[in-house]
Amino acid sequence: MQRLTLSILSLSLAAAVNAAPAPVEDASGQSSQYGSSKTEQLQRMLNASNRVQLEMQNRIDALQQEVLDLRGITEQQSYQLQQMQNRQRQIYDEISRLSDQLAAGGTAAVAAGAGSAAAAGISSLSEADTYQAAVNLVLKEKEYDKAIPAFESFLAQYPQSSFAANANYWLGQLLFNKSDLAGAEAAFTRVNKDFPKSSKRADSLVKLGMIAARQNQNSVAKGFYQQVLSEYANSAAARLAQQQLDKLP
User: Taking a C-beta distance cutoff of 8 angstroms, is the pair 156, 175 a contact?
Assistant: First the structure.
């Protein structure tokens, strides 16, 4: 009985072995099952690499926008401080003028001077409010398309404003983000030529280099980057210019 059981088990095992399908080999002698597995593994690795690259690009885009927002916040704070200092000087000047007129006994002149100062204050406030409203469209409301005509209107109304350089830079940045390279180039060029002492000039030169590079004008782009490195060494703009310069052939 035990021998019969062993014989049956042996026959069953042999049948199972004979029934198992042999792997099909390709011309190279390797099994197609192995090749398919290898291909699937490579495809998964490629898909994973693509996802990582996409995530990195999205992160870079987010960081660029964050830098733009932070620059705007810094500019807004500088603007508010400047406004406070200007107003303080105006008050001191007005007190001094009124004191002098009062000492001279010119009551009528005092009244006229006060009216003139009030009118000047209203005019200055209107200019500042117009600029600040355009900035708020970018920083607070994120209405970038509406901010473009707002800055254009401000520059048309106040071309010689103390905020004109910053307004041109904001306008150039917004147009650059919309790939309007011609409009952006015009705005950044105004900062470069009309406001040589502006804190935005170095950044504008970098952007002019980036625009030239996008238009395959590599020699022009190199000229702008080298100008930044020469005139604004050790600045954040110079570091960015060097990075962009290293990318050019």
Answer: no
| pLDDT single digits (tens) 126-170 | 789 999 999 999 999 999 999 999 999 999 999 999 999 999 999
Task: Fill in the amino acid letter for 114.
Answer: A
Does an H or E element contain 128, and which?
helix 107-139
Structure-block tokens of residue 226: 């080298």
The answer to whether 169 and 151 are in contact (CB under 8 A) is: no
Distances (CA, A) of 122 to 46, 82, 128, 166, 206: 63, 17, 10, 22, 37
- Beta-strand ranges (E) seen in the chain are none
What's this model's pTM, rounded to 2 decimal places? 0.54
For residue 196, count CB atoms less than 10 angstroms from its CB and return exposed for 0-12, middle for 13-18, buried for 19 or more: exposed
Q: Is the dihedral of CA 160, 161, 165, 171 positive or negative?
A: negative
Q: How far lies 100's CA from each of 97, 112, 145, 201, in Å?
A: 5, 14, 51, 42
| 6-19 tens-digit pLDDT | 444 444 444 444 44
Q: Which pLDDT value is given to residue 38?
A: 79
Classify residue 22 as exposed, middle or buried by CB count within 10 Å of its CB (0-12, 13-18, 19+): exposed
> Quick check: 77 pLDDT over 90?
no
